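Structure tokens please, single chain.
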Amino acid sequence: MQRFKLFIPLIVFAVLAIFFFVVQKQIGSGDYDPQNMPSALLDKPAPTFSLPDVQSGKVVSSDLIKNKIVLINVWATWCPSCYFEHPYLLTLAQQGVVILGVDYKDEPDKAQAWLREKGDPYIAVLDDRAGTLGLDLGVTGAPETYLVDSTGVVRLRYQGPLDERVWKETFQPLLTQLQNAKSGS
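Here you go.
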């Protein structure tokens, strides 16, 4: 028994090495994406909300996005990746993409300064200081973006900053499909 105890660290190391090797192979083959965690909301209704707008202080409800295809973008001024993502959100808004912002666990005055300085791509920015909407969405961090169809159902969740590649590969095909389905109905 004493000799077996000597091999325990080696056995633990071997098991961990095999685990990491398998995960690395999955990442390399594209079968595993650590950014792509499943959402409990996928193909389910987006949570309803009633929160103040960061800019005006007026209460904004989920009626604002009713019957619209919309991106719900969760961001914060404390989020380094949000700085990278923001210019591309401005581009999308200029192209007519409807984006609802959720200022997640942040201070409204900092968000207002951010939007004044960097531009405002949003139809409204919800003040989610307490993180309640983020919790309802299943947010694990910022930025996260949800694509909600015109019936209010979450069709896609993306964790991480949006850029042109992510947009074209992940969002655009589904958005086009949703727009075609909406115009056909």
